[in-house]
Amino acid sequence: MNKMFRCQARDPVKLSIQENLLPGRSLAKRLAAAERLGFEGVEFWGRGIRARMKEIKDALSTVKIKVSTICSGYRGDLLSPVPARALYWLNWLDESTFWFFVVETDAIVVRALLGEGGLGR
Question: pTM to 2 decimals?
Answer without folding.
Answer: 0.64
